[in-house]
Design a protein that fits this description.
This protein has 320 residues and is of the alpha/beta class. The protein has ten helices and 15 strands.
């Protein structure tokens, strides 16, 4: 097995970044954004990636997160930063296969942190976590200091990943930061609410039946803003507030998102039906307190209206 250089240059010329999970939804956008900002970017993850260079990657390795593979993909580069996106990516999948989710999130994080400790101790590590660590029972804006009560294996495993980061930060002095992303959406995301609604509307659904009450509140963050925050975290100075929410601080109800998507497809009068059933691991409210992110200089640039238009246009037939 060997890492593939993509023709964008084999040695870092500016700042150097390694992204695990670089073939995933957020990983692709992160690699492209960082490369556009002058970073040399290498990626590690699963699957063939023939268009890796188009997404900003100078090097790609299709492999698990292990010490040997990290050595291989980082060869010749003194990494300035590492953004760890590899891991479980779905509450539903974690409920179906909790052991697999544990291995993808917890085991890979432990391997990665141990590799940084022994091979790249001056590298800044950004662990990408999730609002799922907060779980249920929260009202209003959720600060980073809020109690954690995960309601799914996915949330528990992200919380354990954060604890591993705290351990390596405290015991070995590693430069570890945690970013808890809320509801990230955007072009290329082929799952979750907006994508599901779009597929059903394109198929001609006369009504949209959804779980819950429709009053569940979420904090929708466009992927371009999410990756700006990750790049900012990767490049900023050390902070005592090393755990940070990634969101907008604005609550949007599920029924509002459904209505907006239907309207964008010229189906404003489609019937919305909510079953009242709550899916396992699905809290009523998850909206970020973003004071720490704003203190770092982060302000979301994409409005929900613009972000939805951008996202829906990427799902094949453009909304009417």
């Amino acid at each position: 097995m060997s890492a593939s250089d993509t023709g964008r240059g084999t040695k870092p010329t500016f700042r150097s970044l390694l992204v695990t999970g670089a073939r995933g939804f957020i990983g692709r956008h992160l690699a492209r954004s960082a490369a556009a900002g002058g970073w040399w970017v290498a990626g590690l993850g699963h699957g063939g990636f023939p268009d890796a260079a188009e997404w900003g990657l100078s090097r790609w390795l299709n492999a698990d997160v292990t010490g040997a593979n990290l050595d291989l993909v980082a060869r010749g580069a003194e990494l300035d930063a590492l953004v760890h996106l590899a891991g479980g990516s779905s509450v539903a999948a974690s409920l179906e296969a909790p052991l697999e989710d544990f291995e993808r999130t917890v085991t890979t994080s432990a391997r990665l942190l141990e590799w940084v400790r022994t091979a790249a101790p001056r590298t800044r590590v950004v662990l990408v976590s999730s609002a799922a660590v907060y779980g249920s029972g929260h009202t209003g804006l959720i600060p980073e200091t809020a109690p954690q009560s995960p309601s799914s294996p996915y949330g528990f495993h992200k919380s354990i990943m954060e604890q591993l980061g705290a351990s390596y930060r405290g015991s070995y002095g590693l430069d570890v930061e945690v970013v808890r992303l809320f509801s990230v959406y955007g072009p290329g995301l082929a799952k979750q609410l907006i994508w599901d609604l779009s597929r059903r509307l394109e198929a001609g659904a006369s009504r949209l039946e959804l779980a819950g009450t429709g009053d569940e509140a979420r904090d929708f963050l466009h992927v371009s803003d999410a990756v700006r925050l990750l790049v900012l975290t990767a490049s900023s100075g050390q902070s005592t507030d090393w755990v940070m929410n990634g969101g907008t601080g604005t609550a949007t109800r599920v029924r509002e998102i459904a209505a907006r998507v239907a309207e964008a497809f010229g189906r404003a009068h489609v019937e919305l039906l909510f079953t009242g059933e709550r899916r396992a691991g699905d809290p009523v409210q998850l909206v970020a307190d973003v004071a720490r992110a704003r203190a770092r200089g982060f302000v979301p640039a994409v409005t929900l209206e613009a972000g939805l238009a951008d996202t829906l246009a990427s799902y094949g037939a453009a909304p009417r």
